[in-house]
Fold these 4 entries.
Entry 1:
Amino acid sequence: MNSNDDLALQTLLASRLDAAPNLDEELLRLCYAIQNKYQFSEDRTQPLSAMERLIDDRVAKLSADRSS
């Protein structure tokens, strides 16, 4: 965590250590950034699409790393 993190992100990162210590912090930060960006958008398809792209990219990267 750094001093630029808002309270919600700080809390999320702290609880990650207890609930899912193996969860990648960068992935959590990126998910939070997507949700924060679209939190007031009436169109819920935007954050959904962004989250799907993020997860698909991460899965593809992990799959590529394992096959190397």
Entry 2:
Amino acid sequence: MYGKSGQAVQVTSNKQVVLAEGVGGATTFLLGGCRTASSIITEAERARCVSLMDANRTEWYVHLSGAEVFVDPEYDMVDLPTFEMESSFILHVDTFYPNYYAFRPALFTDWFVRAYPTGHLWAMPLMDTAEFSDSASFRVYDYNTSRKHL
């Protein structure tokens, strides 16, 4: 996965998800089904509800901690139902630009994951600006629905 800027999405040593400066390869994530059965997800959104698991670490999921995006192991969570909601995202295609994807946290109806100017990924309220659209748009390579692999 890469940001619209061309920067690779990586996981840092402290488990933050960032756009990496000068890094050639992106962290590989496996695209999985929705992790929450919560009623916060409408029936219409359920088919687009996804989770992202670090392909190199079983049961390590992309999730929100506050509004910041991290990767943490499911088995390390004290409150599993909350973690399942925090690791569920609604996948949007062509929302900001053709052939780009956007991820809306299931917990927040008008928020999207975007790259903050520091490169850290955060969930933030939707803003009608080119900067927001650019920073909330991601290229996904090797997406194949039969393999569910990003």
Entry 3:
Amino acid sequence: MPIYVDESGSLPAGAMTMAGVEMDADQAARLLERFRSVTGLHGELKGSRTEPLERAYFFELFERFGGRARVCIMLPDADARGARPRDLDCYVALLDALVSDWLGDLGEDCAHFVIDQGRYDAMVEEDVRQDVMRLLSHCGTARMVDSRRSPGVQIADVVANSFFSMAIGSRRSERIRQIVAPFLDADLLRTHRIKAPPAPPPGMTSPALRGSAGPEHHHK
């Protein structure tokens, strides 16, 4: 079964989160179709544009259509001074932790990761994909996809954004906390807090973020 991966936020924005959603591809498409028909959504499903009542309905559908998710959360190091970690280093640390979490759950089953593309350029993302493949020691696949063409990645976006909103204490955070609580209790959602990586040595540059993925504004 595929595991769909998307991230939300950045350390300069207060937190960075990454969700891995396990769901059958047909079920993911059915979930998105049902959500659209009830809410009137047109275009891509984005967590940052999902209001609390719609989000509550989303998580009810998430359970109905057999979803499970693991979410990794990274907060800025409150004791750190000076330079921040590179965005790419934070992303890779979250992705490595998320993949490892899922591999621990799946045991001997092959893992098939479907990862949102577009945060970095194609060459950097290919390096990221190869990094995931190295973690899949016995079997499995990893591929990058355009979220607009993947219901599963859009679902992962809403999950990641929900935990980003809670992590930064947004105006919606308490409502979202109440929405996700029963799904955390049922172990359909599981979280893992990881430490931010160290800042790079002076002079080391970071790959440019693309479009709206800038560190101050990437709240997906």
Entry 4:
Amino acid sequence: MVSRISTRSVSCKNAASIRPTLAAANSNIAAPSAKCDGIEDPQVRARCQSLRQTHIGNARSYLSGVSVDIGQNEQGYVAIYLADTDEVDERSGSQAANVTNTETQYLDRFGQRLLADERGVVRRNGAPTNEHVLVCGHSHPAEYGSPDPMTPDEGARPFDEANEYIQGNGVDRAIAEKAPLIIKTPTGAIRQFGGECDTDRGCQLQAGTPFPEDYYSQGN
């Protein structure tokens, strides 16, 4: 297992909640896949797929222990398969990304901005590598007030509720269209986007206290 501390700061702004994440190498976005599509050798691809499932579990486990209370920094997780050496570059917390309470700045294992093409293949210095993003993850701490729908803060409505999902988060959606993305939401739910789950709405991996689907539509 490879683990390196990243020190280089990068940023990529996003709309609704200003959450920088994995940057797109280009604008050619493919359908979300959990098939390690950038690997031609079927045995190596199967190995990548197996490792991906393992590290989706690792991302869930890591994020389950981080706080999403108001004022907390986001926390990041990334796992990248190094096909040449059959190793996984797995990092979390300060080793995975530079973070603030509104930003997650993913870095590759050399401290450079993490770029991937539509297949999840890591690109470096303008060229594809034999490294493949297995999974990314980060937390969405509450930002504007209590996320409890029984005692909502007026300012929380359009932001914390939106951060339960990623429809309005263009950068997070771009990640989920390259490799599975695991997010711990403001209510504490852990959701997967992309891969075998819907890119926009995701699938819930762990019980939290999510907003009722019709809470805001009812004008509460």
